[in-house]
Every structure is written in structure tokens, then in C-alpha cells.
Amino acid sequence: MNRVYAPLPTFDPMAGDVILSPEKHEAGYWVGCAGVLYDGGRFWLTYRQRRPRGAQAERGWRCAVAASDDGVDFTDVWSVHKDELRSSSMERFCLLPDGGSGFRLYLSYVDPVDNRWRIDVLNAADPAKFDIATGRPVLSAASTGTEGVKDPYVVQVGPVTYMFVSYAAALDGVGAAAHATGDIYNVGATTHPTGLATSLDGESFDWHGQVLGVGEGWNRYQARLNSVVPMPNGGYVGFYDGSASHEENYEERCGIAVSADLFTWHRLSDDRPWVTSGQASGSVRYVDAHLIDGQWWLYYEMTRADLAHELRLIRIPAA
Length: 319
What we know:
The protein is mainly β. It has one helix and 20 strands. It has a single domain, classed as Tachylectin-2, Chain A (5 Propeller), CATH 2.115.10.20. A four-stranded antiparallel beta sheet has the order 1-20-19-18, with no helix packed on it. A four-stranded antiparallel beta sheet has the order 2-3-4-5, with no helix packed on it. A hairpin with a 5-residue loop joins strand 14 and strand 15 (about 235-245). The mean pLDDT is about 95. This is Glycosyl hydrolase family 32 N-terminal domain-containing protein.
């Protein structure tokens, strides 16, 4: 399926407001990988900072939770360093209310035991009070029959919690050597579609496998679903990252997909990405989308001309 998704126009990523800037204006220094929770008029942001391989505290070295009253100016309330998890890298986190008076934080990081990406969960009464020591496993390479799982995006519909994850599809001949770098996503030994797990308590999940596969062109290596928005007239629109090979693993571009039931997704962007930046690699990735007061709020990580990555927000009228 290839057509324009009428309720959602494309946009100029350069027109967005800068929400967070990288610590250095150099290639390999990134801030982004955002997850945004809009809850009771308040915004909560999870984000990651990365440094180049070989730099001090390299790769995904810090993740944080920040709060805001306007969705633009955020203040950190909690953070974690990768060494606290004994991990070589962390990536996307996802924050949700826990159904009571507290919050759940789903985190993805490289397991120090087997160098494979995994997902854990933390609970706290307040996002400022998460304790890494209380983390519990949610999904792993072993529990899903994959080579790794990361980048959770979690939505709740009625009693069901849906967790969409990027996973490394197991292929014949993939052995431990492919995990030597601690980043199976960057070695070209697997592909990376989106899988789904569901839960009735937000803690114990059943794995359903692939729900959004890779394409045959610009998105033939990765199709990572980053956010899902229910539409007023029914169904869901999703925003996914695509790449053609592991050489574009850190410079993905954004595509659009739709679903009627969250289990079956159809890509609408097989011919070309939905949006690119027009500078450097053109990467616009980790789009986290929300419909708020008649506007699309789109948070996204974008590659700058100096090859650093920054986090931006653009607001456009909803058709």
C-alpha cells in the first residue's frame, strides 16, 4: 500500500523547535530517542544521550526522565548511567501510568550476560523515585526466540497493554560472534521488524512475534514502530523507522503505517520515506506523535549538518 495518509501532512523538520541539544557539535553525539507521555495536562519525556564509539562512556551512556508543563521546556527528574546496569549501552525507555497511583518505566539495554538487547520494567509512585535495583525482566532474546529486543513503545487499550518492540530476527547461522560488539543491530547479520507482546497486568507479557515487517526498498533492513495514535474515526496510525542496511542503522528515516486492530499493520511508505530533513543523511527518526487539542505534536530525533543528533518538536494542525 502506497498512498498519502490524508489526515497527516508531511512537514519540514527544520521548522521544529529544538527541545534538547547534544553535548558536543560533532558526529556521534546524540540526544533523542524520545518517548513522551501526556498525562493529565503534564508532559513526561524519556530520552537518551549517546557518545561516539571509543569516547569516554561510549554509546548510549545516559537515559533520563524529564517533566514539563508546556511540552517544550523539560526538567530532568531522574536519570541512570549505563554502568548502573553493567551495560555497554542503553536505548529507548517508555513511561506509562501503572493503572493505580504510580508509574511504570520500561527500559531497553544490552544484557551484560550475553551481549543481547533486553527489556526490563521498574515501578515507582513518582518518576523521580525509580530504583534500578528493583528492575524485573519483561522480554529477552531467550523469551522471544530472537537475537535481541529493544526500543519498547507501550500503549494501553482497555485492559490490555500492547508492547511494540524492535527485534533482531533470528537467522540460520547467527552465533555468539555476531554479538561481540554488543549491538546485533549494527552488524548486518539480521533484519529488524517490529514485534508485539501483550499483557493484562503490564508485567507479564505474551510474545506474538512480527506485526510490522520490513519492506523491499529503503526499509528492507529495519521497520521499527515508534509511536501509535488512535484515530477519531477508528483504527490507528503508526510512525516507523526504516533503513536499507546496517550502514544506515543510526540514520533511519520515518515511514507511516496503519492498522485496524494493532496486530496487523500495513506500510504506506514503501516507495519512499514519509519525511526526511534534507540535510546530512536526511535522518528523522524516533517520531513520537500525539493528537492534542486539534494539533499533531511530533517529537523527533534529527541529524544535523554537523552529524550530531538533536531532539525537536513541531506542532501542525490536524485535518
